[in-house]
Amino acid sequence: MPVTEMDADLRLIEALRRRRGADRAAAFSSRYLPLLDDELRRAVGGLGAELGGVEGAVSRAVGVGGSGGRRWRPLLTFAAARACGGDPAEAMGVAAAVEVTHTASLVLDDLPCMDDDETRRGLPATHRLVGPAGAILVAIGLLGRAGELLAASPREGAELCAEWGRCFGLRGMAGGQAADLAGWRTGATRRLLREKTTALSSFAVTAGARAAGADAGSREALAAFGRALGWAYQLADDAQDEEQDAAAGRRCPSRAPRRHAARLLRLAEERLARTSGLVPEGAELLSAFARSIVPLPAAEHAA
Amino acid sequence: MPVTEMDADLRLIEALRRRRGADRAAAFSSRYLPLLDDELRRAVGGLGAELGGVEGAVSRAVGVGGSGGRRWRPLLTFAAARACGGDPAEAMGVAAAVEVTHTASLVLDDLPCMDDDETRRGLPATHRLVGPAGAILVAIGLLGRAGELLAASPREGAELCAEWGRCFGLRGMAGGQAADLAGWRTGATRRLLREKTTALSSFAVTAGARAAGADAGSREALAAFGRALGWAYQLADDAQDEEQDAAAGRRCPSRAPRRHAARLLRLAEERLARTSGLVPEGAELLSAFARSIVPLPAAEHAA
After folding, report:
1. Do the Cβ atoms of A58 and A48 come closer than 8 Å?
2. Chain A residues touching residue B178 (CB < 8 angstroms)
3. Where does the pLDDT of residue A299 fall: very low under 50, low under 70, confident under 90, or very high at 90 and above?
4. Could you give all domains of chain A from N- to C-terminal order, each with its CATH number?
5. Cβ B94 vs Cβ B150: under 8 Å
6. How close is the nearest chain B Cα to the Cα of A196, in Å?
7. Given an 8 Å threshold on Cβ–Cβ distance, is A162 in contact with B146?
8. B178 touches chain A (CB under 8 A)
9. Are the C-beta atoms of B62 and B99 separated by less than 8 Å?
10. Are the CB atoms for B139 and B37 separated by under 8 Å?
């Protein structure tokens, strides 16, 4: 068989494998997202009940009942638990903590003194509902609840809390946001800037691994995967913004960031595939989620 | 001996006992506060180093090197550890976490959208140094570091993190601050308002108890003591403000809140004295700190 035909067959096999992964990821999401919604409702229900509009603002920020975005971070947590041989349901509280932490960061990012966004997911931002002070306290309240959820994990509660504290602090998400606001794009600040996204995407997967009792080797491979995914997401997201600018005639977009994002993802998947002891179904789910999360045209993904 | 003379003798004995308690508390503070300062320096040193003025703002907010207020909350943590038969040094990280959490709350309270204070302890408030967004991220960073410190406790890391999450969240400090900002003083909101102070004063003592491996009975007695102390502090502090208003001719202050504060403290001390298994020296330290913390005239304390 000529090389070109073999290449075409291999590409077809790969495409079919990816389609199967995407189908399984969709089924997995359909199964666990409703359970997550129940857990989130329990986790934040009644928070701020004494405080007028605060309780409603908390539920809306978290998106209880369906307006909560794609929830890809907790899906990574479930998939990581599966990849480490665990039952994703065991990671329910931990996955909720990941989503609640993400929500806290969005509430803060939208503040007038930060990114000054009036809407989030098509609805008024939290500070539009309860004022900036109220929004700050909602975010703090959400972090507090996330800590409670992580500490209550049947496995590794203390380790989860330690990693989470680092994840959202000044060497993680808060530091990344500060670097972003400062507008510095060089040296150490550039590395810190990445943490805005990578800290939580990495924590999302290692948290699932910890909830499933994974060994250190699996955890490290998954952490690297989570970091690569977060970084690829940010690169591709920025590229999308740049493309929109280019469409508006402002400048010519470079394809380099997207190529870099695609390469990061591919290397991370290859490392996952090489990590012994991971359940193939879970690793396949992680790959499928990664591909649906990172906004790359199919051509770049296949590259 | 006539009753009045016996009364006078009892009062003298009580006064001497209190003097001894105060002396021991002073010696205890002199011993552990420098160690706490070292721990705080290690805990927050380098945080925000990539971010221009942020690192300095963090150190100043925490008061590393001596401008950090009386540090009565971590002193309570040390004393509680002692009361539960532990070595206060074992509670070092936990005590630092208590102080760092307190600092985070001050940084947020001073924000223009909250209490709008330009100075703290005679120095510019954090938001005056790094802007409101920077101050919010400093506070988040401090909370993250506090979580790491608690999770690293050699004993009960997960339990400490769970209690701490509840302490600073919407059922604790953040909820109390929200109630205060809303200006509601009735029903459930009034109870929540107390949490602004009592949540952390209670956590400070139970954290020390957990670090020392105390049983649930001791922990509960200490938690009640911490709550009473926090509430008495708030009552007496408000009474002081009211007295200043009265001195300015605005209204006639009531003595009721101070009497109530003194009564709360006395009952809490009596409960401590009745709790079996506590080390008397530690309980004496807690009483002495309580009396130095709550701003009551000596006459009310003795009442």
Report:
1. yes
2. 48, 51, 54, 133-134, 137
3. low
4. 3-222 (1.10.600.10)
5. yes
6. 12
7. no
8. yes
9. yes
10. no
CB pairs < 8 Å spanning A and B: 197
Angle between helices B157-168 and B92-109 (to 10 degrees): 20
Planar angle of CA A108, A110, A111, nearest 5 degrees: 70
- Partner A, chain B 146-165, Cβ-Cβ below 8 Å: 146-148, 150-153, 157-159, 161-162, 164-165
H, E, C per residue of B54-108: HHHHHHHHHCCCCCCCCCHHHHHHHHHHHHCCCCHHHHHHHHHHHHHHHHHHHHH
Least Cα distance to A70 among A47, A36, A23, A38 occurs for A36
CA distance B13 to B38: 38
pLDDT band at B286 (very low <50, low <70, confident <90, very high): very high
**pLDDT number for residue B252:** 67
Taking alpha carbons only, the member of A209, A107, A103 closest to residue A146 is A103
d(CA B278, CA B83): 5
pTM of the model: 0.94
Q: How many C-beta atoms surround the C-beta of residue A4 within 10 A?
A: 8
- Using one digit for the tens of pLDDT, what is the confidence trace for B45-81? 999 998 988 999 999 999 998 777 899 999 999 999 9
Phi, psi of B119 (to 5 degrees): -130, 155
For A68-110, what is each residue's pLDDT tens digit?
789 999 999 999 999 999 999 999 999 999 999 999 999 999 9
